[in-house]
Amino acid sequence: MDARYAEAASPALVAASYLARLHEEGYCVIPNLLGTGEVAELNRDLDPRFEATPFCQGDFYGETTKRFGSLLKRSSLAQRLVMHPLVLSMVRSVLGRHCDSILLNLTQAIEIHPGAPEQFPHRDQDMWGGPKGSMEYLVNVMWPLVPFTDRNGATVVWPGSHREQDMPMMPPDQAIAAAMEAGSALLFLGSTLHAGGANRANLPRRGIIVSYCLGWLRPFEAQTLIYPPHIAQSFPAELAALLGYGIHRPNLGNYEGQPPSVLFDECRPEYLQAQDALKPDQAAFVAQVMSARRMSSQHLPA
Fold first, then answer.
1. 7 and 129 in one domain?
2. Edge-to-edge strand list for the sheet holding 65-68
């Protein structure tokens, strides 16, 4: 979609256009979601951590690459990335077919240094062992903090590879480098084959990956340990739920039968009342069955 047209179009129309491309190609690039000032502030916030972080160990993460997570504690602007309305609406459209609610899978800052080779091509959904092809497990969002180019290691994606999930590798000449300006966003499915690109430039390539997964999966980052209740209670309720402080209906991920957000209340009772957390159709079915049982018991002979 042309950027000038996107500015004039309704948010729903913009989302639908990019969502169609995401489903068709397995990825899409949305330009200009962050301003230059926000990108500069993010870089300033993360500079000290990048400086202090050692290079990764292992061929997959890359021994000329730096990575670190827990970004909601590193910069206040990380919330803006995680909670971007257009991105969240698209993610929920993709994942909401197979879950009641979604979770934040990870936030990770990545800096690929000069001389780094191209990463091993992979699909991020393979961290989970369930059957593939019938649903999407996660959606990734790459936010460049510097311009991404073919030369400096832009993320490499294989268009349409989400429809060829039985192929662990695909020909290199079918891949493209997702070149984009800082402040844009690359969305790609967990089933899309991709890799960090080789950095043949003279400066590091820096970006942030934010990903979201089905609400009944175990996320890549242990969010409720990274952001324990005394930290998470300061977040907006929607963000806290993304971190795992809500219940995935029916009743999954509860604390003593209540949403884990009950831990935000320091004056909570010592003994809590377990409460149903059912989807509307489940609650209606349970109510129907129980009502029929009560009616039946009333007509039993004394």
1. yes
2. 27-30, 185-189, 138-144, 205-214, 102-112, 65-68
